[in-house]
Amino acid sequence: MQQNRIRMFISNHRIVLSRIIVLLLLIFWLMSRSYWSLHHPIFASFLFMIGTILVGIAGMGRMWCSLYIAGYKNKKLVSSGPYSIMRNPLYFFSMLGALGAGFLTQTLTFPLILVTLFALYYPAVIQREEGDLERIFGKVYEEYRQKVPSFFPKLSLYSDPDEYIVKPSTFKTHLMSAIWFVWAIGIIYFLQTLRDSFLDYQFTLF
To answer: What pTM value is reported for the model?
Structure first.
């Protein structure tokens, strides 16, 4: 019972909780310095490159998902495009974005922290949302759930209609959430420059 209450609280307040976690991690990062950038700059650059690639994939992936889901959430069971290969593609690409943002810090510590937090945080959200979809769509959703994996894509299931109706006004709103992943690259680089220029003391992270 207590566990269900915790899951309900996380699901209902996930946006506020996410912002608090991001703020705390940002403060933690600003007070630290990458071991790799100090002693192994080539490897540090490699980590930044990996982060850039993952964040780019995350941004494009969320835009791809938004193209299908915009205006249809809880009104129509979307099962084509990214939703034909996994049931929760938005969260999958968000995880890639979080992992990429971690690598942009040129550390291995932050990717590990972010993936751990994601693994602890989002299963409750996904479980709650899938329960809602099952109540709304019933047997149709149950058949979809049995066929399509929840999180990690099964590419062999991919299917797409010849045409798909998109609602532009809703898509634009979803588009902004995807663009933030791309902006993260510039924001982290800018904050990193300010930190290294003005902060005298920093502890080292691997």
So the answer is: 0.86
